[in-house]
Each structure stands twice: as structure tokens, then as C-alpha cells.
Write a structure and sequence with these properties.
Layout (H helix, E strand, L loop, with lengths): L1 H14 L10 H4 L12 H17 L17 H26 L11 H27 L6 H26 L6 H33 L13 H11 L6 E2 L4 E2 L6 H4 L3 H10 L13 H14 L4
Antiparallel strand pairs: 1-2
This protein binds heme C (HEC).
Length: about 300
């Protein structure tokens, strides 16, 4: 069936040679001789769906309390951001070497570009693994806000796009625009996943560091000493590291590092978000104010 398909396509191309130019959209309509028909796109599309769905299904669980690691980063969140940023840097390099391979750059292509492209791609994939381990197997698919939902979807999509791109490379002979389009899609999804997490985190960090003037002092009615007890009983320490509380949790940010002010902590404890459960229904208003005072006082606020 396929051979027949190619044959008739070849005839069509022969009849209308003026429609063939080298990198134009006209090629979208008819694959050149020796190339696969567009029906073969089903293979990478199925690969995309399988891998994206598998990632989503594996991630379909509540946050797990144990098994996090942080290497030399301040907490697992910064570990993920660090590796995700490395992936994005390598992805940019991938884009650059791909343009070289497709002879879109003004320089002659040396022989090392292809292997370097391949190996930087493998390295990028390896860098996604510590991120995927934490996101997929520890935190799971989360949707408390649009940012986190978008990040969860893009993260699953990244593995789908990766599988699709590798399928296209391995099957060879796809019509010319297919591989660059798949590579571009993978790149876009990776940037999206990074933008909704690592870049967000870095901005969040800088905003926290740069805005002491906007930060809120601890109100007189909030009692940090009582808050220490709330911190213990509410189980904050199972997710957060905070020396003053003797807590070494690894799921949420290290509270000695992010140093939230009173209002940030109060709002976060009350409403939750981004993997942090809300405590509004479980603690009284006063308890929430107390525990926020405890966290803010530890962060250096008075
Ligand atoms: C199930 C794990 C978990 C528990 C329990 C938990 N947190 Fe969190 N917390 C998180 C996560 C994850 C985040 C990061 C959320 C995000 O993406 O912004 C967070 C964020 C925070 C922040 C915001 C830090 C910042 O500046 O960005 C504060 C403050 C905080 N938690 C305090 C507490 C306190 C106090 C308690 C106990 C009442 C508590 N958390 C219980 C997981 C948890």
C-alpha cells in the first residue's frame, strides 16, 4: 500500500515539477520520492500519546513524604530548577547544532557537529531524570493553580515530544519539515515546562530577597512561641526544613533559605498552593497567625 502510495506521489511530482522548491511549504503537500508518506506521522503521534500518558499516569498519586534528594542544592525544588535550567541550556545548544546540521548557518559544517548534537541531546535527556524522578514519582501531577497545572501538563508533554522526536529520527525518511517541526515542538515544550517552574522559582527567590521593604512585620497578636508548637503538631516539618524547629522535611522549600515574611507564611498556610496543602480548615485563625509568626521570626522578621 505504501509503495503504491509513493509511486503515485512520484508521478504527481513528476507532472508538476514547478511545485517543488527546496524548503518551501509546497513540500508539505507531497513528500519527495523515497520519503515516507504523511500517514507515517501516526507513529510519532502514537509515541507522543503513549509517553505523555504514561508520565501522567505514573504521576497520578498524592505527594509522597520520603525519598527526596537535593545533592548540593539547598532543597529538592532548587535541584529540580538547576537540572531543568541545564536542560534548557542544552536544548538551546541542540537548536543551534540542528540549524548547523540543516545548513541554516553561514559556516561550513565540521564533522563533529552531528555527534556533538547527538550527545548533547542524550545529556539533556539525562538531566531531565532527576527532575522527572521528583516530579513524577514524588510530588505527582498537581493542579492547585494554573501555573502548576500547566507545568504538570508540559512536563508530561515533554516526554511525549521527546519520544515522538526520537521515533522520527529512528524511522528516517520523513518529509523534510517533519523533523525540524518535531524538534521545535520539543524545544517549545521544554521551555514551557522550565518557564512555569524554574524561572518562576528564580523570580520568586529574587523578589523575596529584593523586597524587604514590602515585607510585613509580625503583628503583636501573633505568638511565635505558640507557633513553634503548631509547627510540630501540624506536621510542617515533614515537608519543610527549618533548623529552629528541628525539622528536616524535603518536599517543600527550605524555610531557612526562602525566609518568608509573616504575611507570605500566613497566606500560604491558610490557602496552600503548589504542592502545599491548605491548613485553613484544620488550624484556627490564631494558630495560623502563630505558626506564621514562628516562621517569619526564624526568617529574621520582627
Ligand atoms: C505536604 C507537604 C507540606 C506540608 C505539610 C507543609 N508544606 Fe509548606 N510548602 C510545601 C510546598 C511544596 C511548598 C512550595 C509551594 C509552591 O510551589 O509555592 C510550600 C511552601 C510554603 C511556604 C512558602 C515559602 C516561600 O516563601 O515560598 C511557607 C511559608 C510554608 N510552606 C510554610 C508551611 C508551614 C508553616 C506548614 C505547617 C503548617 C507547612 N508549610 C506545611 C509543602 C508543605
Amino acid at each position: 500500500m505504501c509503495a503504491h502510495d509513493h509511486l503515485s506521489r512520484r508521478k504527481a511530482v513528476a507532472r508538476a515539477p514547478q511545485l517543488r522548491f527546496d524548503n518551501g511549504v509546497a513540500e508539505l503537500a507531497a513528500p519527495a520520492p523515497g520519503q515516507r508518506s504523511y500517514r507515517w506521522l501516526a507513529a510519532p503521534l502514537v509515541a507522543f500519546a503513549l509517553f505523555a500518558l504514561t508520565a501522567g499516569l505514573l504521576a497520578n498519586h498524592n505527594p509522597r513524604p520520603k525519598g527526596y534528594f537535593r545533592l548540593f542544592f539547598s532543597d529538592p525544588i532548587h535541584l529540580k530548577a538547576g537540572f531543568a535550567t541545564a536542560v534548557v541550556v542544552l536544548a538551546c545548544f541542540q537548536l543551534f547544532t540542528a540549524a548547523w546540521i540543516f545548513r541554516k548557518l553561514p559556516w561550513r559544517k565540521p564533522a563533529w557537529v552531528n555527534p556533538v548534537h547527538r550527545w548533547s541531546g542524550r545529556l539533556a535527556f539525562a538531566c531531565t531524570l532527576p527532575v522527572a524522578y521528583h516530579c513524577i514519582f514524588k510530588l505527582g501531577f498537581r493542579d492547585p493553580s494554573n501555573r502548576v497545572l500547566a507545568h504538570s501538563l508540559l512536563g508530561c508533554g515533554a516526554y511525549g515530544a521527546f519520544a515522538a522526536k526520537v521515533t522520527i529520527v529512528r524511522l528516517h525518511r520523513f518529509p523534510r519539515p517533519v523533523l525540524p517541526l518535531a524538534g521545535g515542538l520539543l524545544f517549545a515544550v521544554l521551555i514551557g515546562a522550565w518557564y512555569t517552574s524554574a524561572l518562576w522559582l528564580y523570580r520568586h527567590d529574587t523578589a523575596a530577597a529584593a523586597a524587604p521593604a514590602k515585607s510585613s512585620p509580625i503583628p503583636a497578636g501573633a505568638n511565635a512561641t505558640a507557633g513553634a508548637a503548631v509547627f510540630k503538631s501540624a506536621g510542617c516539618g515533614s515537608c519543610h526544613t527549618m533548623k529552629a524547629a528541628g525539622a528536616g522535611g524535603q518536599i517543600g522549600p527550605n524555610l531557612d533559605e526562602v525566609r518568608p515574611d509573616f504575611e507570605t507564611a500566613r497566606a500560604m498556610v491558610e490557602r496552600g498552593g503548589g504542592g502545599m496543602p491548605p491548613f485553613g480548615g484544620q488550624l484556627t485563625r490564631q494558630q495560623i497567625r502563630d505558626v506564621a509568626a514562628f516562621v517569619a521570626k526564624n526568617a529574621g522578621f520582627r
